[in-house]
């Protein structure tokens, strides 16, 4: 294959992905994709958030973390008020979005937003 053909094919692939992602996001509105417990196990206690915050994560891992944070923000905490939950999870959504976008400040934002104690005291 000539490199031009490869370039055209890969840009088609990118387009397909761009179209597919919003459709998936719409599905997510109906039912949360990750339960709070799962997010804690995989992203908070698990290595995902640390890996993304340290800048060693792949694009896939950054996207996965962002999807988890979005799901977390849509989940209902079993304790605490909604305003506080929105604020705490909103910071995580913003920080993980910055990581996906390749923002150099994302690591610091993530570390600050993933304040285990602040959130557990009010919501766990
Ligand atoms: C935005 C809020 C929030 C933040 C930030 C947060 N947690 Fe949690 N975490 C929760 C809530 C809510 C629960 C209770 C989930 C439940 O039982 O449904 C929980 C539960 C847990 C659990 C128990 C999971 C289980 O299997 O029952 C662990 C472990 C945990 N968190 C680890 C962490 C660590 C480590 C951090 C920091 C790096 C962290 N969490 C940051 C909200 C948060």
Number of strands: 0
Radius of gyration: 17 Å
Q: Helical segment tally? A: 7
Secondary-structure-based class equals mainly alpha
For the largest beta-sheet, the strand count, sense and barrel status come to: none
Mean pLDDT: 88
- The helix content, as a percent range, equals over 70%
Ions, cofactors, ligands: which are bound?
A: heme C
Low-pLDDT stretches are none
- The multimeric state of the shown protein is single chain
Strand content: under 5%
The span between the termini is 56 Å
Number of domains: 2
Q: Given the C-alpha coordinates, what overall shape results?
A: elongated
The arrangement of helices and strands along the chain is: HHHHHHH
Describe, in plain words, how this protein is organized in 3D.
The protein is mostly helical and 124 residues long. It folds into two domains: 1-31; 32-123. The chain is 76% helix and 0% strand. It contains seven helices and no strands. The chain has helices at 3-30, 36-44, 48-53, 59-74, 82-100, 106-113, 116-123. The longest helix has 28 residues, at 3-30. It is elongated, with a radius of gyration of 17 Å. The N and C termini lie far apart (56 Å). The model has no long low-confidence stretch (mean pLDDT 88). The structure holds heme C. Residues 36-37, 40-41, 44-45, 77-78, 88-89, 114-116, 119-120, 123-124 line the site of heme C.
Quick tags:
124 residues, mainly alpha, 7 helices, 76% helix, binds heme C
Question: Which helices and strands appear, and what pairs or packs with what?
Answer:
Elements (H helix, E strand, L loop, with lengths): L2 H28 L5 H9 L3 H6 L5 H16 L7 H19 L5 H8 L2 H8 L1
Helix pairs in contact: 4-5, 5-6
Bound molecules: heme C (HEC).
